[in-house]
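Re: folding output
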Amino acid sequence: MAVTLQQPTRARLITPEGQERGLPVVLRYSAEDPLAVQITFPSSASLDGAEVTWIFARRLLEDGLGAPAGSGDVHIWPCGRARTVLEFHSHQGLALVQFDKIALRRFLLRSYAVVPEGGEEASLDLDQGLSRLLGGV
C-alpha cells in the first residue's frame, strides 16, 4: 500500500481587485505518484462551484520556493521572505494564490520522508503504471 501524505493549510486567493480571500486547502503527496504534488482547493474557490485539484511536479514546487519557476499552466515564485505565490492558468482564466513559505517547505520536507529527493524513479512501479496507462491490456 502506497503512503499518502496530506497536509491541510491555509492559502490566500488574490482577487482581480487585489483583495485577499483566505482559503482552506489540502496539500497531498503520494508514493504512488512520486514525481507529483497535489493542491486541492474547496468548491467555494472555483467559478463552477466544484472542488479543484491541481497536480504538478514536486521539483517545480522545490524550485519555486527559491526563485521564479514554471512554464505552462503552473508558475511559482517567492514573494518576500515569508510567502510564495502559485499562479494557475486554465481555459477559465488565471488564479493567484499566496502561501506561507514555511507551510510549503514543511510539506516538501515531509514528502522527502516518503520518497527521498532523487529517489522518485526508483520508487515508480513501471509495470503498474503501464498497465494503468494501457487500460489493463
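--- second protein (sequence, then structure) ---
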Amino acid sequence: MKNINIEKLGYTIGVIGVAITLLWIGLFKFTLFEAKAIEPLVVNHFGMNWLYSILSVQGVSNLIGISEIIIAIGLIVSFWNVKIGKIAGIASTIIFITTLSFLATTPGIWKMVDGFPVTEFFLVKDIPFLAISLLVWGKNHKKLKNKA
C-alpha cells in the first residue's frame, strides 16, 4: 500500500473546499435574495461602495459572483498551471481579506448576546479560507521562482 502524503491531501482538500464554496456562493450571487443580503456589507465598505454608483444592486452582486466563479475555477486549475495558481491565490486572498474587513466596516455587525460578542459567523469562515488562499499563492509563487 502506498504511503499517503497527509500534507498534500490536506492541501488538496482545502483548495477544493474553498473552490466549491466560492463557486456555490458565486452562483448564489445571481439571485435577488443574495444581492439584497450583501448590499449592507458592500454599501458600507470604503473600497466597494462606489460600485453602486455605476451598477444596480443586482449588477454589483452579479459582478462579485462572476469574480468568485472565475477565482474558483482558477483555484482548481492551480493543480496543473502554476501561473494561474498564483493569480488565483492572490485573487482569493484579496476576496477573503475584503470579506473579513466587513467585520470592521459594517455597522451593527457585532452584537452582544448574554454579554458575549457575536457577529455574522458566515464571515468568520473566511479566516481558514484566507489561509488556504495564502498557501495557494505561496506554493505557486515558489514553483514559478524555482522554474526561473
